[in-house]
Amino acid sequence: MAEQVQVFGFWGSPFSRRVELALKLKGIEYQYFEEDLPHNKSDLLLKYNPIHKKVPVLLHHGKPIAESLVILEYIDDIWKESYPILPHHPHQRALARFWAKFIDDKVVVAVVKAAGSRGEDREKAIKEAREALEALEREIEKSNKLFGGDDIGFVDIVGTVIAGWIPAIEECFGFQVLTIDNFPNLIKWSDQVVNHSIVNQILPPKTEIVAFMKANWKF
Question: Which GO terms describe its biological process (predicted)?
């Protein structure tokens, strides 16, 4: 029986793009439905994700799965035979889950907060973002490779938001958190990630992300 895999996403969403990246790394064919965000959510999106009403949603044989981190684990569980995303060892898997959640809960939240604030509030958010990035800098320094080792893994997939979207946010809103002087290992990692042959196909151009943010991110 042929796989029935559908993705409801949005080109400018790092959370949506990470799902597509995982499927492409696994070599899984899928049907893609582009949502007209931020204002025109389709009836199907609202049907399949009635709680959060947002992308991404993975539909597998008619059954919906929401939330990008949950979807990534589902993809790895279902298609075990091709390209492992999470490590095999339970402890390493737990660490990967920890750092992935850390990126979303600490780094992304702080950077978006900085974009939406001014003055002292912005400086405080930038400080929070840098402190979170310092923890990642120390972690990636241990391997001097990718978070997944020699190959793109779970944390690297989630971390594409750092490599692909944070530079766009910095340019759009006129502040910097990720510099080569402060984060040489993360910058090196970021270059490796964005130049990966499959990641390069998935990440939208920085100019397009900046243009979208300027038009739609109204704080």
Answer: glutathione metabolic process
C-beta separation of 65 from 57 below 8 A: yes
- Whether residue 166 contacts residue 126, with contact meaning beta carbons closer than 8 Å, is answered with no
Parts of the chain with a pLDDT under 70: 1-2, 219
C-alpha 5/C-alpha 186 separation (Å) is 33
Collect all residues with Cβ–Cβ distance below 8 Å to 31 and sequence separation of at least 6. Answer: 5, 6, 7
Q: Taking the CB of residue 192, how many other CB atoms lie within 10 A of it? A: 15
* Number of Cβ atoms within 10 Å of the Cβ of 108: 21
- Cis-peptide, bond into residue 38, ω within 30° of zero: yes
Instruction: Tell me the C-alpha distance between 21 and 200, whole Å.
Output: 10
Backbone angles phi, psi at 48, to 5 degrees: -85, -20
b/e map of 146-175 (b: 16 or more CB within 10 Å)? bbbeeebbbbbbbbbbbbbbbbbbbbbbeb
Report phi then psi at 143, rounded to 5.
-100, -25
Q: CA neighbours within 13 Å on the CB side: how many for 134?
A: 7
Q: Enter the tokens of residue 197.
A: 């042959």
Domains of the chain by range and CATH? 5-78 (3.40.30.10), 90-216 (1.20.1050.10)
**Residue 2, pLDDT score:** 56
Helix %, strand %, coil % of the chain (to 5): 60, 10, 30
Residue labelled with tokens 């492992």? 84
Amino acid identity, residue 54? K
